[in-house]
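Provenance and format

Records in this collection were gathered into a single text stream. Each protein contributes a sequence line and a token line. The two records reproduced below are adjacent in the stream.
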Amino acid sequence: MQRRYFLGLGLGALVTGCGVSGPVVMPPDTTLYVVRHGDRLKEDLSEDGKQRARDLVTALEGEPLDFIFSPSIQRNLDTAAPLSQARGLPISRRAQENPTARILRDAQGQSAIWVGNKNNIRKIWEDLSLLEPAPLEYGDLHVVRSDAFGVVTVERRRFGMP
């Protein structure tokens, strides 16, 4: 089941005025896919996590993708690796702290994925003043889009194992 959430500009301004530490403005015509690394066992991906990383390739089939961003944490890189190989795109490493502004500057007007961790995904949501729950569970894949007028929508998806 797919649900879409719309964040109007006026609501974004209202939320910003209420003390949310954002805002980072998402450039028009930009798409950001946000996913948490695959399931893990201690610090590394579990077998389920490795399968989920492969399932991410299928989940994004047919979707435009210009950049793959990830912090330099091995489980994140391992999650992004099958997608990188399938798309022939390098994994661009970004600092895990406060990644939002740099990701959106680099991906302006294009499509990118952030393969992150709970804390930096929460930070992206906070920076963009997004009200809906962030994609913090294994298998969550959220698509954050800004249209030509800068209106941001969030589409929630699931992928991989149940």
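Adjacent record:
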Amino acid sequence: MGPGPQILRNVAYIVGDGMQPIVDLVYPPRCPLCGDAILAQGALCAECWSDLEVPGEPSCASCQRPIGQTVRARRGTCFACAADPPRHSGVIAATIYDDASRKLILSFKHGGKIALAPLLGRLMAARIAPPADESPLLVPVPLHRWRIWQRGFNQAALLAREIATQGKGELLVDALIRRKRTPSLGGLSREARERALSGAIAVRAGAKSEISDRHVLLVDDVLTSGATSNACVNALLDAGAASVRIVCFARVVDAGSTS
């Protein structure tokens, strides 16, 4: 029995477009969400496109969390950001975390379907305004070396690379390092998350000169509580970055989220 369709798609992603016609011939393109036939690999069918929820307005001027018209008109920011202003300069999310985006993320990150990176990366890049002058640095959220060894890749780094190919920034893939393994942050209080991440993320010594005075786009797949991204933002700003914006494929929006 030959290699499965996903293995061939991953290989085509790694080696480039030259192998794509072979993959299309052996395994015709199908929507990664529902499995229906589509015209080209790395896309969604029309119905599944409509299932993806794109962030809209009105939203918080700081974290882009959806807020009511009255709050937007009166203060511009959500109550969380007003009470505890974040150090980052904004959040850019391609989608709201829901069933459709969740399935894509799980397939990409835990299902090993790295061939989804171009699709997710294009959707993220489409939300980023073209640089006015100097291109920003694209810095992925780091994984601990043991996590990379187990998974085989850093999903944030693959997404950052795709965004760079769309001309939305300059990739600096190893700017941040994760110095210690951290437990799952789900279900932990804000204080417990901060304790778990204390000292875990730092700027690589050799990257400080490249980060100094540069505008940075911090790239990740999902923004949930914001604890990990905040640790990255703090490390980058403390190393001299001019500003840091967070770019993610899916943004979790609920009462328990923080910027």
